[in-house]
Amino acid sequence: MANITGFKRLNFFTGFFTTADDWNEGQDYHLEKRRLHNRGLHTPGVISGERDELQVEAAGGLNIRVMPGAALDGAGNEIYLGVPRTLTVKPGDYDLPRLVYVAMSYREEESGYVENVDTPEFSGNTRISEIPRLELTTEVPDNMVKIELARVDIQTGVTVISAPLDPQNPGGNEIDTRFVRKAGAVGVEEEMLSPPELQRLIHLMADGRRDFAALEGRFSVPSAADSRQGALTLEMLARLGAIRPGQLGDVFAALAAVEQDVTQELGATYPALVATPEFTAYRDTVSTLLEHIRNGAGTEALLTAQATVSEAARELSEIALRVPEADAGGDVTVTAREGEATVTLDASSSRPFEGRRIVRYYWNEKKD
Length: 368
Prior knowledge:
Oligomer: single chain
Distance between the termini: 104 Å
Largest sheet: 4 strands, antiparallel
Number of domains: 3
Shape: elongated
């Protein structure tokens, strides 16, 4: 019933002689109704709380074990794995290094064949088994037909696939489950970021944390710390799958407002920065991001604009400022009474840098 045009269910009555087609149609009715419910009211992904939730574990050597659990695909199929299943990474199948994904998809096959020797046309399979397909693939699972269970960054010379030492930052040849989506109820906005967009957003926010931490370490202003915290918050929301494409402009607007505060606070606290090209570049990239947000730019444009802001923040953190130079002229000897003296000193040879003007000098009286 792939191209269903309407629903009809069986209506039993005394004397109704049923055929195999009647029973099959009766099952199709309930199957398609359930799939309709799943498609319309649930998002695809791994079903929480069912068995071991399809956890992927290291099984020794190049083996990966998928534990029992259930998932839901974009067509509304319920995918169930009842027993653990082991997959083996074969390095010779890939040009290494290569990111390899553990994916699961819905599959069914006929089973339980019964043969009627006397009447062969009455032979057939008595069951349709729903046996999920598990595979290792280099293609990013779309989480519609193929559900991602884990990924591993396979490195040249790999001999062992292992559990991650740090689950939040897995290394090469370690199992990474950070991008696994959980099935759930459909919210107000059903559209979701694609897996590549979601991965890029997570990496972008990680870069932002690093870049604004460097800026805060070099030029300490409150808004630089706030920008770092904002990037961390967005990274956590992205990992939870809590950001929809239609919401990206709003969340970036909040982050960009804080990033704009950075220019104001840096200008007030470190005036020497204002005339540098790095400061101008940072200010302009934030303005571009805000303009994209106001114009309702798409996901790609917003991600690219935010990436340039983070990069500009990093370059600003690496700037080398010249120390101001001022020569107050030759030494002047004065005689002071009662610890006070009024003197006139020649500062005509003083040299401020980059067009600035020296307006006041301070001298300390040195007593022999």
